[in-house]
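Protein folds are increasingly written down as discrete tokens. With that in mind, we are printing a sequence and the tokens encoding its fold.
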Amino acid sequence: MVVAQLNDQLQQWHGAPYRYGGLERNGVDCSGFVYRTFRDRFAIQLPRTTQEQTALGTRVARADLLPGDLVFFRTGRGENGLHVGIYDTDDTFIHASTSQGVTRSSLDNVYWRNVYWQARRL
């Protein structure tokens, strides 16, 4: 069920452009996409910012990831240097990428592997 909901969300949002602070299909940021996915697909209200989302749930080892877990990355410095996505399956996650908009990416991609920080289960 979780995987089906994530796939449906990705289908509806795929390619939506990245826009800092955005919450809509005409522009959404990473934490906004996570916020909207959990609200719209699972009726779960999450905090709006990546920083706030890092405090949710319990920490999970990368080897133990399940669909729906939040995955966090340190892509820069400070609060704006954080990125969040939602683990899908087969070492992939869905997220709002600054360069590609809403998409599915691989945790095995050299960039994401190098900036991976932590995962949290709600």
Summary: The mean pLDDT is 97.
